[in-house]
Fold each of these.
Amino acid sequence: MRPALAFGRFRGTIGGVTIEIINTGSELLLGRILNTHQQWLCSRLTQAGYAVTRQVLVSDRGEDIQRAVREGLSRADLVITTGGLGPTCDDITRERIAELLGRPLMFDAAVSESIRSFFVSRGRPVPPRTRVEAMVPQGATVVPNRQGTAPGLRMEAAPNPFRPGGQRSWLVMLPGPPRELRPMFDEEILPWITRQFPQASAFVCRTLKTAGIGESNMEELISEPLRHLTDAGMDLGFCARVGEVDVRFVARGSDAAAMVAEAEAITRRLAGDAVFGEQDEVLEGVLVRELTRRGQTLALAESCTGGHLAHRITNIPGASAVFLAGYVTYANAAKARTLGVREETLREFGAVSEAVARQMAEGARAASGADWALSVTGIAGPSGGTPDKPVGTVWMALAGPDGTEAIQKLNRFDRETFKFTTGQQALHLLFRHLVRKAG
Amino acid sequence: MRPALAFGRFRGTIGGVTIEIINTGSELLLGRILNTHQQWLCSRLTQAGYAVTRQVLVSDRGEDIQRAVREGLSRADLVITTGGLGPTCDDITRERIAELLGRPLMFDAAVSESIRSFFVSRGRPVPPRTRVEAMVPQGATVVPNRQGTAPGLRMEAAPNPFRPGGQRSWLVMLPGPPRELRPMFDEEILPWITRQFPQASAFVCRTLKTAGIGESNMEELISEPLRHLTDAGMDLGFCARVGEVDVRFVARGSDAAAMVAEAEAITRRLAGDAVFGEQDEVLEGVLVRELTRRGQTLALAESCTGGHLAHRITNIPGASAVFLAGYVTYANAAKARTLGVREETLREFGAVSEAVARQMAEGARAASGADWALSVTGIAGPSGGTPDKPVGTVWMALAGPDGTEAIQKLNRFDRETFKFTTGQQALHLLFRHLVRKAG
């Protein structure tokens, strides 16, 4: 997971539909686990052109859940709840919402059967208390759960006793575990939302992922050239993350697709190889894909990033096709023994130097037999800096078929941000070489 | 950061004070960044014996902020807001709350001077618009910001126009950036809360971190032996995380410290070396500390964890004193070349085998000269399994001064959880050896 450092100025496009999210779970209020549902659901809805107007987290207590749902239904067209659909005594969301809306719970034989086969297919006995998961509020639609036993539920509050004028609202209940909630939302709920609440006009949202150009410089680079499009109503947004900047175009109406396509073309032309991907892509994923396509392989020689680069690459399914080896040579002796960095180079220039970065990359390439090898050596801090080489000094090198290129950076961040930023710069160095080769 | 997989049954101790959190920020509602404030603040308050009853996230719009604060003050003794105190045009929390409570904003010369010196000491010009950060609602107390320019604010709503009966409430406004919010909360706000809302009686909360025993087995192991304490009012809670289980004791009253100390002693006796730490400790942190104390060193040979183990170890400040090298030998050729794993062993037993795990650990120990070397080799999946060695099969080994020990595990998880769980088992293998040596 990435550090949560992003200060976005993107404003989003507020559609006509009001959506509120209610997260339930005492373990969330106790701070035992992180609420990832909120960001995930908001991001999915934003990308589809909808705006979440409010999110609230309440405990597992019935009165808290009912109060939050009542408040949500008094304001929103759609209220989405997460959690509390399982079989334990804490799981009362279904029951308390049915009570609030005056809908009796009915036993659903089809749900019961699908729960039974979930356990049978895994060779496990059916726990008796899963019976409660087959209880469905009258009038609710069952939403299948591919990854677990508790189905989601979708129901209309019409007339809506809590909304001024009785205007109808919808209520969607999702299970708490992310691996159940996410596919259910993508496969069942989001398609239903787009049908139930169609956009007033065409909606296009596109994100370009960039690295190597800071947020202000990116804004300066493309704002004027895109002025005719933003003047015509296209939204242009920037979101600075650790080591990368998202550029986002949002447009509505019959010209939306053409406007966004033009904005993308202009940005790609001006920003060049700073643009490494689209939508949710990550740089390591793009590299694994591109190396796989070329039938080429990669090795890593890390000092200050301490294995984080290898970890990122191996997070990508299929990485084994391109990634041969990583050498985390933290100690100088390891740099010498494993990568063949010369003792006299270490003595003369120090471990954080262009010469050592080059020898690390070339040594990793030779030791592994890979087509490409990236190396990183630097001073993460907080200690270890000198007037000559302050904390944050980094040298990195890329050894490849046509020789070795080394670059220097100054990254003054906390440890986690330092590792990520430095790794990102190294990956981007390889990305630029691959793009150049292709071009 | 760890995967957010934890299904805690710990119920917490609801004190008499009601606390609500209001997070502001359109970038949060757009799903661009993760709301880490909620978990962090809830965790800090829970550990201090306070319960957060509700959290709400609203946009940067003035009416949304005012409505949320009005609702919070109508229910809670303390309302904590985050975000919106900076100098940009989005930052309107201070102004809109002052307006809501009918408090004029006054220029504070001392705040202005501290903002000025913040910039001057960094050799940067003072941006004119930081002047707004020196505006303080009448009657509010300024809370210094050690890490940034916008101070926090603390004010009393007394009488409280929004609460039935006019009962007074407090309002605390914190800046949005985590590195500003966290020290401010720990150093200034939490001590103030404990003075302003003293616990009715002594409160002791203690967490033991454990690995190697599942949640149900841990519960079975200690519930009965602790029965006399839980019957006497001590809370016993469990929180299952990826690769570890937290055991938590909470007690109030004059016997609180004695009860918790007895519970801890019983648990440590029964769970033995499953207990690796206390409170917020992580296993890799404990290992770096213990190895440093012993003057011993560590090397890693990773295949299926792909550098994640090295990443975890090097996340700990001071790791360079004990960590010599990590070898991410993803390809078989790298296992042979770098670690001296024999070709015939790879051919005969396969890369995921006891023999290869042992040779990897011994090879890493020899190559690095470390006192200890851990190795991991396994099938992360989703592909690569066989009837003999299904997906999730892992062999790991520890080579040390007294020989090599290898163990086998079956870890069937998604990629991220697989890496973390497998790494945790390997680290715990080393932990058990160190503890045994010490015992």
Amino acid sequence: MINVVLLGFGNLNLNLCRAFIDAENVEIKQIYNRNPIKLETPFKSIPFTEDLSKLMEADVYIIGIPDDDISGFSESLPIQNRLVVHTSGAMEMDQLAHRNRKGVLYPLQTFSKHRKVDFKNIPICIEAENKTDLEMLEKLGNSISENTIEISTSKRARLHLAAVFVNNFVNYLYQIGDEILTKEALSFDLLKPLIFETASKIEYLSPAEAQTGPARRKDQKTIDKHLQMLQNSPNSEFYELFTKALRQK
Amino acid sequence: MINVVLLGFGNLNLNLCRAFIDAENVEIKQIYNRNPIKLETPFKSIPFTEDLSKLMEADVYIIGIPDDDISGFSESLPIQNRLVVHTSGAMEMDQLAHRNRKGVLYPLQTFSKHRKVDFKNIPICIEAENKTDLEMLEKLGNSISENTIEISTSKRARLHLAAVFVNNFVNYLYQIGDEILTKEALSFDLLKPLIFETASKIEYLSPAEAQTGPARRKDQKTIDKHLQMLQNSPNSEFYELFTKALRQK
């Protein structure tokens, strides 16, 4: 049995909590949050504290708070020689306070409050200073996912960068699509089947193989029409940059 | 019963053919293609020709060829006063030859040869010169989809533009993600659960609500690290443009 204390209860730790509850060999000993929160079913029975001096003993302490606060927060923990991990893609493991054993447990996924995700396929990227801790994190990762992998701070940073492109930036393109349709009083729903199929295609084709469109086909007439429709729109910059890149490929 | 002749047999008409075969009130009278093709099951029994002078009579002729060729090809058809439609998002209906009745049947989706798509949820955008033809196209659309809508040439052009953003450009971001990971000898598979979840999120959140990431949070430290990793990469231009736009929102 691995005993876990969750430090912070934002979208990420909330979703980890949901997954650990269903895991056989994990016990959530305690949830800490800076501000009081009302724990609802199925979390009701988990001990909660807003007071760091009342932290319980556990095998792993999992920090799930904004990146910029991780370092300072880890310094403020009144514990020693315990395994303290953060869950950030961008943050170095070494940003954690040295008085505890450091580690990282980074689930490569986007989390929402109101949506329970299935951890089974989510890559859990782990890192630790020593072998025993790494094995513990591996066990913890395996308790919720079929894809736990050791990834160094430097590789994790690149992975996180790639994630920004395929998640944050992709979502921004959805926003642009929404904007274009709203101007025409057309529903964004019209684009959803296309959006799902675009994401599904890479299951059996590489992104390079799946690439289509006017720029890929060098269809200058359509490109010119599109640029004309985008006149005076900041979105024309995106159109031009993608078109240039796709032409050069 | 609606009789259909398919003109051209690329990914789009191939997939329409698959759908029409399963439809109750549609009969595919004939497939024309410029070059000979071997029709395999379940298309074996459909008459095929490479000779335009041998076109059969039908209620609707559906052109599925590259945009640039549509106009000239429709001029070359040795038929008159028939309903001839193209399937392009970007092309005006009026680009079709005037000697036939003009129309458009544009399924808003991306098609591949080796993947059978479910038309049920795909928006079928229709347009015609007269009411009777529009009703015929509506019946035809409804035979395969639950979402047939009348869309003018001008709105269809905007819809197609939006589709380029959420499909072609999104897929290019997948390529960038792939590139970043390949350099680190990491598998693109790691990003797939994130990519699917990003697409799935918009089912219950608007793209604006679903937006996350360092630029949205104005997390300058992470942005600076990312830009440093992208030094000397053409992808830094994308990173800067998205970051600027997300900051301004």
